[in-house]
Structures are given as C-alpha cells and as structure tokens.
Specification:
single chain; about 270 residues; alpha/beta; Rossmann fold; 2 domains; five-stranded parallel beta sheet; about 35% helix; HAD_sf; HAD-SF_hydro_IIA_hyp3
C-alpha cells in the first residue's frame, strides 16, 4: 500500500491509466486525479489512457474535457473500441459476414459504419455485435442470445467490462456481462480491450515504447490482469468497483487470489 504517486514517481517512465474509476465515474473528474495528472506532467512522464470503452479514443477526448481533464495532460487514449475496429479493418472478422444483431447504448449506430456492417434482426444476422446494454439488464437479451446460439452466431464485444461505476456510486451493467452470458451458453465470443495482450502491444506502439511502465486501474479482472499478462507493473485503486469487498490489506490479498492476479502496489485513490 502506498500513499500516492510520490512514492513511485521515480521508478516508472510510462503510466497507463484506466479512465472510469480512476479519473472519473462518468461525471466530473476526481480533483485528486487532476492533481495527479499535473504531477506526472511536471515529472515528464508518458501518460496514456487505456479504457475499456466501446467508443473510440478520439471520442474520449471530449468526454475527458467535459470532465475537467485538459488534453495536454496525456499523450493519447486507446480504447477497447479502437481495438475492435482495428480487427474489423484488418479483416480478422471477414468470415463472420456483415449483417449484425447490434446491442448498443443510446441507439448509437455509428460503430456499424466504422466496422463495415449493417444492422439485422436476429434471424437474419450473421454475427452479434455487442457494444451496449440499452435494455438495462442481461436478462433482457437472453431470448436473442438463445436464437443467436441456435444459429451458431459468433459474438464480438467492444467493451469487456462486466460493470462500471456511475457518478452516483452505483454499478451499472456493461457489455461484457452479455458476452459472458453468451460464452457460458457455449457461444463463441471475441473479446477486446483489457486484459488482452494485443491491446498492450498497440498501446506500446502508440506512445513510442517504454522502458518501465505501470498500469493503474480499479479492476482486478481487467486492469491488473492485463498488466500481469503484459509483464508490466500495476497500481490497484481500491476505491473503485471492488470497494465494497475491501477493508484492509488482507482483503486486497484475498480478492487478488480470487481473481488470480497480483498488483505490485495499491492505493485508495489515484493521487499525488
């Protein structure tokens, strides 16, 4: 357990930051996070935001600005949505066809154009594209998933997170929960974002390489597992999605064992 970035600032040249739960929860940025970002800038550290978001990194610029985080405080943003779009663009999913049963947020259809797909009903679809949970719960998707499984459709998910924090401090269901339900049915799922190793390779290229990097995040299943997979250090933020299960160092160690991961450091908030 450390008191803040000041304890480890001289050890790392690159800081790979999660967005939700570290910098903000969908609303205004945490004041401590803005102070921490300025501290990293003052110490000439590379800062990249690696987010499990179905949106593009360029879309995140606006969200971060709206939260109070200025563009000069980080090098760039790379998302699980960028990872997915990259795989469509490079032809990885060509064999799946182009007619997608599309699960989305706020009826946003832009990702279909980005990936060269058209929307289809479940009986006509050649794949499932899972980018949101407009219907509110996984149960609301089970009928469609059952037909998709019967038709042997493969599911591509843009955001592997199961849940995310809201500005009010509650947890909301994320696309990864739908994908996990489909996988448990026996359906084939193509995962993107953290903890997939390919995303960390893309990240390293994006920032021009690093000597010693550390990933900062509040999800043991995604942020810390991803860091472990990529062979880099990690800083676990205990005030995020696992907060209710954490009371002391022993609880952190037990939770880490449950997820079969190990964080090098932990801290209550992302702070200087």
């Amino acid at each position: 357990m450390i008191s803040g970035l000041n304890d480890i600032i001289d050890t790392f040249d690159t800081f790979i930051l999660d967005q939700w739960g570290v910098l903000h929860n969908g609303g205004k940025a945490f004041p401590e996070a803005i102070e921490a970002l300025n501290f990293l800038k003052e110490n000439n550290k590379k800062v990249v935001i690696l987010s499990n978001s179905g949106k593009t990194g360029s879309f995140s610029y606006g969200r971060l600005a709206d939260s109070g985080i200025s563009r000069d405080l980080y090098l760039d943003v790379l998302t699980s949505g960028d990872h997915m779009r990259h795989n469509f663009e490079t032809g990885q999913f060509k064999s799946l066809g182009s007619k997608a049963l599309h699960f989305t947020w706020d009826n946003d259809q832009s990702v279909l154009d980005d990936c060269g797909l058209t929307e289809a009903k479940v009986d006509d679809a050649t794949l499932v594209l899972c980018c949101g949970v407009d219907r509110g719960s996984v149960d609301a998707y089970m009928d469609d998933l059952a037909i998709a499984y019967q038709n042997k459709l493969e599911l591509v998910v843009s955001n592997p997170d199961l849940v995310a924090m809201t500005p009010e401090g509650n947890l909301k269901t994320c696309p990864g929960s739908i994908a996990m339900a489909y996988q448990k049915m026996g359906g084939k799922v193509h995962w993107h974002g953290k903890p997939q190793l390919e995303l960390y390779k893309m990240c390293k290229t994006l920032v021009g390489g690093w000597d010693k990097a550390i990933a900062v995040g509040d999800s043991l299943e995604h942020d810390i597992a991803g860091a472990n997979t990529a062979g880099i250090s990690s800083l676990f933020i205990t005030s995020g999605i696992h907060a209710k299960a954490i009371s002391d160092q022993n609880s952190i160690e037990k939770l880490s064992q449950d997820y079969e991961v190990k964080a090098d450091f932990s801290v209550d908030w992302f702070k200087k």
